[in-house]
């Protein structure tokens, strides 16, 4: 009896077998699942937000009869964009011509601001005497509203179109100057020391050393400038008249076509979003991370 008991005590306890681990999904399936989830987040979120926006718009339009409903606005947009480039004279042009006129003014004013602002920003960031001379002027003039410069442009140029371009120029130049100057000032001193050891000319230092390092800052200034320019041109055209999306919006208000005003708001927002997206993509293309 004792021997049997001792044998029972010595026998190892039976351990239940662990359940077999489930087979993991193939890597390609996991990758496709992650891509599908990312695509759903990218599509479903914006669609839900836009649907909520349209719903709120419909509710507000039902309570305020003067505001057109989304359906009325859609019908007006379909009719408006069926012939966006008609031309019945200087004061009756399609929305396409007015949009192109605004983009042309923005392009000219923005281009002139880039030609002036980027070299000035390089000089301010590179040379301490220039920085001491121009930094107070930039700090003084930068907070001034761009529309405050419009009467001065009308006085100088005696015409509405160059005055609007002047307003675009003056509002676009400050972000370019400031961001370029900040970028130049943050270039590591080691880069400049190597350039000095190699006895590089100032032109080569600017083009081979400073420009690649400053480019992300410069493109940030460009992106901020184009957004500001597109904001200002609408208000400037409301004041100066002629052609342009701002003038067209104000003219539709005088004609009490509220649905066209809503369409103009959407057009201005879509064009601004496109410009912003293109410049963000350009900035990412030329932004490098240190390993």
Automatic annotation (TrEMBL):
Main location per the UniProt record: membrane
PROSITE patterns for this protein: ABC_TM1
Record's GO cellular component terms: plasma membrane
Biased composition regions of type Low complexity, renumbered to the chain: 10-26
Domain ABC transmembrane type-1: start-end pairs: 99-279
Alphabetically ordered keywords of this record: Cell inner membrane, Cell membrane, Ion transport, Membrane, Transmembrane, Transmembrane helix, Transport
Disordered: annotated span: 1-26
GO biological process: alkanesulfonate transmembrane transport; monoatomic ion transport
An MF annotation (GO) of this entry: nitrate transmembrane transporter activity
Entry-linked InterPro entries: MetI-like (IPR000515), MetI-like_sf (IPR035906), NtrB (IPR005889)
Name by which UniProt lists this protein: Bicarbonate transport system permease protein CmpB
């Amino acid at each position: 009896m004792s021997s049997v008991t001792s044998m029972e005590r010595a026998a190892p306890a039976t351990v239940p077998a662990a359940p077999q681990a489930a087979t993991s999904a193939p890597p390609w399936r996991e990758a496709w699942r992650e891509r599908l989830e990312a695509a759903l987040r990218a599509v479903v979120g914006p669609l839900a937000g836009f649907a909520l926006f349209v719903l709120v718009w419909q509710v507000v339009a039902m309570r305020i009869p003067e505001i057109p409903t989304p359906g009325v606005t859609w019908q007006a947009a379909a009719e408006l964009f069926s012939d966006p480039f008609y031309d019945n004279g200087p004061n009756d042009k399609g929305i396409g011509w007015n949009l192109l006129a605004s983009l042309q003014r923005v392009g000219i004013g923005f281009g002139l601001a880039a030609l002036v602002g980027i070299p000035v920003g390089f000089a301010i960031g590179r040379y301490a005497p220039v920085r001491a001379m121009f930094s107070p002027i930039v700090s003084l003039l930068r907070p001034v509203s761009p529309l405050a410069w419009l009467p001065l442009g009308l006085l100088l140029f005696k015409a509405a179109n160059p005055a609007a371009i002047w307003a675009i120029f003056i509002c676009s130049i400050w972000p370019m100057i400031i961001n370029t100057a900040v970028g130049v000032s943050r270039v590591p001193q080691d880069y400049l020391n190597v350039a000095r050891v190699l006895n590089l000319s100032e032109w080569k230092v600017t083009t081979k050393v400073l420009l690649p390092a400053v480019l992300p800052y410069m493109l940030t200034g460009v992106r901020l400038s184009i957004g500001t320019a597109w904001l200002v041109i609408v208000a400037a055209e409301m004041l100066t008249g002629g052609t342009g999306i701002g003038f067209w919006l104000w003219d539709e208000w005088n004609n009490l076509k509220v649905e066209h005003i809503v369409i103009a708001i959407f057009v201005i927002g879509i064009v601004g979003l496109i410009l912003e997206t293109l410049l963000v993509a350009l900035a990412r293309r030329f932004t490098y991370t240190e390993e």
